[in-house]
Automatic annotation (TrEMBL):
Signal peptide: none annotated. This is Response regulator. Keywords: DNA-binding, Phosphoprotein, Transcription, Transcription regulation. Residues 148-210 form the HTH luxR-type domain. SUPFAM superfamilies: C-terminal effector domain of the bipartite response regulators, CheY-like. One of its GO terms (molecular function) is DNA binding. The modification 4-aspartylphosphate is found at D69. It comes from Solimicrobium silvestre.
């Protein structure tokens, strides 16, 4: 999902058209406040102040990217970026700045602080959307890793110990001997690990965590 944040209605509409012409799903925001309001709804039920700004935010499994204008009324693009960077979910939201000539130094500084890229107006449409696709892929990978980390967090301490030994290629008997537990207990832990990590084999588990 491409998130377009720009207070210039004409440019915002043009970017939406460019995205849709490339079969790229997008949502547009007229201000940094509106975009941040949508982010504030993430993980909530969509009610309350956040919902007054925009629809409830949710991540796209195929990745997300933010096109953000540097200079906007109200909260500027740079201020919006700084507030976004404070959120844990920011790593799944690579930001590409759109900037006028006079704002290039600010965009370069944001790039040094973690922005994905910036494009100076007037920009080449294809070059911009090539970078959007790269940012979406980065976001997709980050989203996949976030899911893996959440699964790992659900493992018990003992299950993590068994997991480490499974990844070393050790069989159940060796794991039981090393941890001082029964083979049956190892089998139970292994089954729980596979269930929580949503895999069926040790090979699949290793591939997930490579």
């Amino acid at each position: 999902m491409l998130h377009i944040v720009d207070d210039d209605a004409d440019l915002r509409d043009a970017l939406v058209w460019m995205a849709k012409s490339r079969q790229l799903p997008c949502v547009a925001y007229a201000s940094g406040e509106q975009f941040l309001g949508a982010l504030a709804s993430y993980g909530r039920n969509g009610s309350g102040t956040a919902a007054e700004h925009a629809a409830q935010f949710s991540f796209d499994p195929k990745g997300d990217c933010v096109l953000l204008d540097v200079r906007m009324a109200g909260i500027s693009g740079i201020a919006t970026f700084d507030l976004l960077a404070e959120l844990p979910i920011s790593k799944r939201l690579p930001v590409i700045f759109i900037t006028g000539h006079g704002d290039v130094p600010m965009a370069v500084d944001a790039l040094k602080r973690g922005a994905f890229d910036f494009f100076e107006k007037p920009f080449n449409d294809n070059a911009l959307f090539d970078r959007v696709q790269e940012a979406l892929e980065l976001s997709r990978q980050a989203g996949e890793m976030a899911v893996v980390y959440q699964r790992l967090a659900n493992l018990t301490t003992r299950e993590r110990e068994v997991l480490d030994l499974i990844l070393l290629g050790k069989m159940n008997k060796l794991i039981a001997d090393q941890l001082g537990i029964s083979m049956r207990t190892v089998e139970v832990h292994r089954a729980n690990i596979f269930d929580k990590m949503e895999v069926k084999t040790a090979v699949e588990l290793a591939g997930l965590l490579k």
